[in-house]
Amino acid sequence: MARKTPEINSSSTADIAFLLLLYFLMTSTMNQDSGLQRRLPPMPDKNQKVEDQKVNRRNIITVKINSQDLLFAGNEPTDVRFLKDKIKEFLTNPTDNPSLPEKQEIDIEGFGKCMVSKGVISLQNDKGTSYKAYIQVQNELVKAVNEIRDEFAMAHYGKVYASLPEEKQQIVRKAVPQNISEAEPKDVGGSKR
Amino acid sequence: MPAISTSSLPDIVFMLLFFFMVTTSMRTTENKVIVKLPEASEIAKLERKDLASYINIGPPTLQLQAQYGTDARIQLNDSFKTVDDIRDFIAAERDAMSESDRQFMTVSIKADEDVRMGIITDVKQELRRCSALKIMYTARKAE
Predict the structure, then answer these.
(1) Digit-coded pLDDT (tens) for B12-60
(2) What pLDDT band is residue B82 in, cutting at 50, 70 and 90?
(3) How far apart are CA B140 and CA B143, in angstroms?
């Protein structure tokens, strides 16, 4: 009693699958999440007495953005375009200028002794500062550090930082630390409230 | 000349389809705020997307402006919240993660470029209080 079942015509499955595929292609957003990654300082303990961290004045550069998005770096007004070079000069201190940060010899595992700058960038903003200006400044600060890292990597390994293997990147990170402190909220002034 | 057999074509397409279905994540929350991300050139990609929590900050969308005004607001999950709700939000997000992953949790701040820093600073302070210290300022790649 074998009845011959007619085969289902499957030539259109491809079309159906294509339609589904296109639907998913259209609706899905391949949004890549990217941005500037930061680590916030932990909240100071209430029971702990606030100790004034005596950081040498020469080791700190204060970058302020006021409510008109005007920029001050080390107490003088500048423009975002010049900020990077200023920060680079601050962090590398090529001429051992006594008003720029001191360097400390640190023994880095797998590399040896190396002079590491003790400079810290302190970023302050006002309530009225626009987020755009803030990110722009953050970006310039990161750019300055990244360029110094690249120079360091170029000088010692002959490659840019990004193309180094992980353990060497770690060494470079230790030799050129990214010390950006986002201070406690403080009004820099010029805000209209 | 025999015609090329197309019988395996559906299989190939289905493979592609499954690839896209698995790799894409459907948008689960609806944006209630307008966010035009600021531009930056030194951005780094977020390594583990599943460990990220999102805080959207910006003016409400046009349909909602009649109700909520145009002032920048914070959106957590699906609704407008205030800075005080961040604590519960972070706690809930933490609970949803496995114990070993909690230390890697990143809070991604998606804020509109015209937002004032006052609100961002408040959010940052609240995050510090909840000890969610790993944050990311989401930004677009500058051309």
Answers:
(1) 878 887 887 777 766 666 778 888 888 888 888 887 777 888 888 989 8
(2) confident
(3) 9
pTM score: 0.76
Q: Which residues face B76 on adjacent strands?
A: B79
At A105, the amino acid letter reads E
Tell me: the pLDDT tens digits for A137-185?
A: 889 988 899 999 999 888 888 888 888 888 888 888 888 888 888 766 6
The 10 Å Cβ neighbour count of residue B71 is 11
Q: Which of B29, B71, B121, B143 to mutate to test the interface with A (most CBs of A within 10 A)?
A: B121
Q: Does A18 touch chain B (CB under 8 A)?
A: yes
Burial degree of B43 (CB within 10 A; 0-12, 13-18, 19+): buried
Instruction: Looking at the complex, report in whole angstroms how far the Cα of residue A2 sits from the nearest Cα belonging to chain B.
Output: 26
Answer for the pair A185, B125: CB distance below 8 angstroms, yes or no. Answer: yes
What is the phi/psi pair of residue A120, to 5°? -125, 135
Residue to mutate among A36, A83, A188, with most B CBs inside 10 A, is: A36
For B138, the 3-state DSSP assignment is strand
Tell me what the mean pLDDT of segment A52-81 comes to: 81
Both tokens assigned to A56: 């040498």
Residues facing A114 on adjacent strands: A106
**What's the CA gap between A122 and A63, in Å, rounded?**
6
Please list every residue in chain A whose beta carbon sits closer than 8 Å to the beta carbon of residue B116. 127-131
**Rounded distance, CA B39 to CA A7, Å?**
58
Give SS3 for A34.
strand
Interchain contact, B46 vs A10, CB within 8 Å: no
d(CA B85, CA A150) in angstroms, rounded, equals 42
